[in-house]
Amino acid sequence: MESAVDNTSLPGNTRSGRTWRNIRRNYELYLFILPVVVIYLVFKYYPMYGVQIAFKNFTASMGIWGSEWVGFEHFQRFFDSYNFWSIMENTLLLSVLSLVFGFPMPIIVALMLNMVMRERFKRFVQTVIYAPHFISMVVLVGMMHVFLSPNSGIVNHIITFFGGEPIMFMASDAWFRPLYILSGIWQETGFSAIVYLAALAGVNPELHEAAIMDGANKWKRIFHVDIPGIMPTIIILLVLALGNIMSVGFEKAFLMQSDLNYSVSNIIPTYVYEQGIQRAQYSFSAAVGLFNSVINVILLVTVNYIARKLTENSLW
Amino acid sequence: MQKGKVWPIVMSVMLAGALVLAGCTKGSENNGSEQGQNGGTGSGTQVVNFNKDGLPIVDEKVTLHIVAPKAALAPDFGEMEIFKRLENDTNVHIEWENIPDTDYGEKKNLLLASGNLPDAFYNAGFSDYELVTYGWDGTIIALEDLIDEYAPNLKKLMEERPDLKAAITAPDGHIYGLPTWEENELGTNPFFHVINTKWLEALDLKFPETLDEYTEVLMAFKNNDPNGNGIADEIPLSFMHMGWCMDIGGLFGAFGMPDNLDHRIVRDGKVIFTAVQPEYREALTYFHEKWFKQGLVDLESFTQEAPQYLAKGKTPEVTLGSFIWWEIEEVVGVDRAQDYALVPPLIGPNGHRTIGRGNGGGPGRGTFVITKDNPHPEITMRWIDQQYEPYMAAQIHWGPIGIIYEKDENGKLVNLPLPEGVSMGEYRQKVAPNGAGVITKEHFQTIVDMEPRAKQRKIDLETYYEPYMEPENYPTIFFEIEELERINRIEPELMKYVNSERARFLLEGNIDKNWDRYVQTVYDMGLQELMDIYQTALDRYYASME
Amino acid sequence: MSGFMKRKSKGDILFDCLNYTFLSIGTLFVLYPLYFVLVASISDPNMIYSGHVWLWPQGVTLDGYARIFNDKMIWTGYMNSILYAVVGTSISVTLTLLAAYPLARKDFVGRSIFMWFFMFTMFFNGGLIPTYMLVKDLGMINTIWALVLPGAAGVFNIIIVRTFFQSTIPDEMREAAFIDGCTNTRFFLYIVLPLSKPIIAVMALFHIVGFWNGFFDALIYLNHESKYPLQLVLRNILVQNQVNSSMMIDVESYAAKLRVTELIKYGVIIVASLPLLIIYPFLQRYFVKGVMIGSIKG
What is the mean pLDDT of chain B? Predict the structure, then answer.
């Protein structure tokens, strides 16, 4: 945001001059950010030496420094595992598909709710859809078993009522991904919509007034006022989501796994868990975690760059 | 803006690098300083009035700091009657650090990883891998000398039962963990096959003895409405695929080779992987064609968990025809239990009739370990040895004399009646730490009486299953570290593949088409190497017994 | 003002119709399983599994709740959770706001460096063991600080707040204020914060939920049951009622235990989530449209 007067030719207004002036003038901002910087240095950067666990054979008594260095051995073991490609594919597919179907939902819901005029209805809906977030994974999958049971589940009752054959949802590898994604949408949409609702609340109401005066109906207002207004939030969250693409949760896939859907439900976290059952496999899981992080970082930098070029919003 | 982008990246990489290096020079390991603290000072450097035998163990009270998990209903171990008695006798005070058993696993690892060592771990739950690794690097100390000098009870046990000694000795010859064992032999066959006899009567069928007769019974259950309510809601057979006491692996014995969760049996000293054998193939084919294809088996057998499974026996209308479980009552409830009966192994189409003998069954060997930071290992050894005296062992496992037991005229411990409305399982948690002590099968004759349920099970096993049981099993062998590593590398994925293929074959068939490819894949995943390791270890085990 | 809002075009009527319909259907779909959890928490588990429970509870029993509330740790758990949530949220939200604001200012020199400094930790961290040892060395084991400090001001939240600031606090406002002689601090406290009610409410909510639901940190750093937060107590009740093969000899209590586990599985959710469901409507009014009216006049 440039000021109206062009100061660039005045003496003392060089680039570094301006920089120093900004620093001095904004000294309070540095104080604001200081406590958090200290916390990060202490609790996040200091322990970072632990990253080397991924390159060592960690044993407790040797400690992190004393444990034997094995270089890329753990990574090699991961890449050499018989099912490596299938595991990668399963993980990525699950993550990407969840994103494709799950990311737009909270936005749509927030936009819809934002246009609701009746306070009581709005509050009721919001409370209801935010509640599933608190259902534990164990109960969620347990309910899926009950509802989808081929013998006694309500869904199959409806199917047979219309003349169909009962479907073994929880055993089928074709249904694993849809169920995983749909249950995720059910559980998280309401909670994730909150951020967008807050962003919508931050949209200048005068813009809406102006639009109404121009004769725009609600559809148009959504497209021309609301969506542009929350676009920065959307972009940022999208970038962050893509930058976490490898971080799929362990619990749901583990609970939904059965011998019959193993070929699609075998993902990186469950694989690491299986490998570690015999012993505390710190090194191996650290290596795999590091591998995930590297991929995430690469993706994040790439996506952020694209976002910056295409829109004006980006993380940095 | 472009310059602004490169610079921060470079800066933060340097920053991180600098921090790592700074951490480097900081150097000193926590372990080192911790050791100095715990080892030397604290609870007395000198061995104070230690008695090599007899009680008390020390004349002046000594304190040991021990970490142990505790069950939900249990009080802190310091409050337990049996430990109070022990302290009175031995004059050794234990400062218990009890961790709820649900969190114990994680906390134990953290304690070990961060160098925060107690004097000992009780009910320690150390896996074989942990025993050899921590033993090898010295975190826990070797115990055989201590046992020899200060543990007369344990020593006597090991002389009477050399297999016990072999079981707890690590491949490098040292003993790192002490045993806990109830040699009740109740797990020789975990798969109890149960059938609804009321339905057999209702449909006028004779009790099946052969596999084909059983198949006909299943058909009848499905089609002829044995529960008489006009709806085809009967489930002829339900189980839990690859469940530890609920799989149909026992039924594979009708084809000459029983299956189990390890897919591993022993015949004539040779280790066999069942899941690639012709008998296994025959069994799968039969089950698929005759049962699954005909819709005679509950489809949820592949996905259900125990609570869902157990609920099937208790539906308002009786719907369960046959199932596999540890015992009958739990599945169908007390009221219906008399309508069901155990099925002895069925005779297969070729006349085979065998049931598997469960692998393992040996003592747990990582239940007590002494850490390197313990200043009084000999006092500790004498203290824990008290729990290997047979009567004490029984009390540690089930509860003290006077509360759970009383001695009868032969000196055998018999159960006292329980207080009103209390179940044995819950009461036991409150009064018995169950962290050490060995009760051998000989002891079950003379020292302590088995619980009624346990006795019943023994009778059932002898009546129905022992006559047809495979003579050999794969014992709980102590593998070497490299063996454990290699097993760990191959086995998880291989087993997952075998199990998911088994489910697929049972459900979808196509066995002839896919068998060769399947077997080839299993071998590609490393089956031969895996079986060689198991065989070598078995040979070594037998050799050490001679 | 309200006159404008009331005028509806045909497009608007259609929109509202569809809007209400879809939202209602969606809400019902979400509502049914929630209702099921409520009903299941007082039903006989065997009935649940045989599919008899779908609208009304069957085999009504309060055993599950009895088991939960019998555990005296529940009440300490509630107290502890409230304490941790209040303290943790206050600290973390304050720090998050303080850190996010400078990052939102274009004239903040070193913005990118700080951003990277924070973001780097999202991907690379030392893991559990070094952090545990650090916490131990700082003497924070078994204290509230271990739960509240290491995770304060998470990167994700900082980014969200920063984005909000960037979108809603235009530079002209700040420049105008500076011309009037306002300092950074005063601007932040008296202008930025009041305008940020929506995002503060959201942050408060996220943090409260996070602390309330979290149990892993408590599991690792707290040693004594009297300090356990609610979720850890509940999880332990649940886990200790689970059964495994080594318990087979205690055959009598096996089925009884399973039954209790099933019952409390659902009850636990109700017990734990109820407070959060209650406070939501109170916080929710802050991130609703209309908060901004009259506040922006350049």
Answer: 85
Chains adjacent to C (≥3 CB pairs closer than 8 angstroms): A, B
Pair B67, A99: CB distance under 8 Å: no
Long-range contacts formed by A27-30: CB under 8 A, 24+ apart: A28/C183, A28/C184, A28/C185, A28/C188, A29/C101, A29/C102, A29/C105, A29/C108, A29/C184, A30/C102
Q: Is the pLDDT of residue B151 over 60?
A: yes
Would the pLDDT of B30 be above 60? Answer: no
Give the model confidence (pLDDT) of C246-289 as tens digits: 445 455 556 666 777 777 888 888 888 888 888 888 887 777 65
Q: What's the CATH fold of domain C71-240?
A: MetI-like fold (1.10.3720)
Would you call B454 an interface residue with chain C, using a CB distance cutoff of 8 Å? yes
Among residues B459, B487, B510, the one where a domain terminates is: B459
List, for residues B327-381, the tens digit of each pLDDT value.
888 888 888 889 999 999 999 999 999 999 989 888 889 999 999 999 999 999 9
Q: Closest-CA residue in chain A for C118? A: A40
- Quick one: which of B475, B327, B450, B442 has its CA closest to B397? B450
- Interchain proximity A209–C4, CB inside 8 Å: yes
* Structural domain that includes position B341: 192-356+479-545
Q: Is the ipTM above a cut-off of 0.90? A: no
At A194-244, the pLDDT tens digits run 889 888 887 888 888 888 888 888 888 888 888 988 888 899 899 989 988
DSSP state, B371?
Answer: B
Q: Which of B1, B299, B301, B317 to mutate to test the interface with A (most CBs of A within 10 A)?
A: B299
The 10s digit of each residue's pLDDT in A259-270 is 889 889 999 988
CATH of domain A83-310: 1.10.3720.10
Does a structural domain hold residue B292? yes
Same domain flag for B149 and B175: yes
Residue C46 in contact with partner chain A when CB distance is under 8 A: no
Other C-beta atoms closer than 10 Å to the C-beta of B206 total: 8
C121 interface with B at CB cutoff 8 Å: no
Number of domains in chain B: 2
CATH number at residue B433: 3.40.190.10
Rounded Cα gap, residues C220 and C231, in angstroms: 14
Q: Quick check: is B535 in a domain?
A: yes
Q: Do A45 and C121 touch (CB under 8 A)?
A: yes
Domain ranges of chain A: 1-71, 83-310
Find chains touching chain B: ≥3 CB pairs under 8 Å.
A, C
CB contact (8 A) between residue A116 and residue C188? no
Among the partner residues B20, B133, B299, nearest to A48 by beta-carbon distance: B20
**Nearest-neighbour CA in chain A from C236: distance (Å):** 14
Does any CB of chain C come closer than 8 Å to the CB of residue B312?
A: yes
B509: left (phi over 0), alpha (psi -120 to 50) or beta: left
Asked if residue B87 has pLDDT above 70, the reply is yes
| CB neighbour burial string for A159-187, b if at least 16 within 10 angstroms, e if fewer | eeeeeeebbbbbbbeebbbebbbebbbbb
Of C48, C120, C237, Cβ closest to residue B12: C120
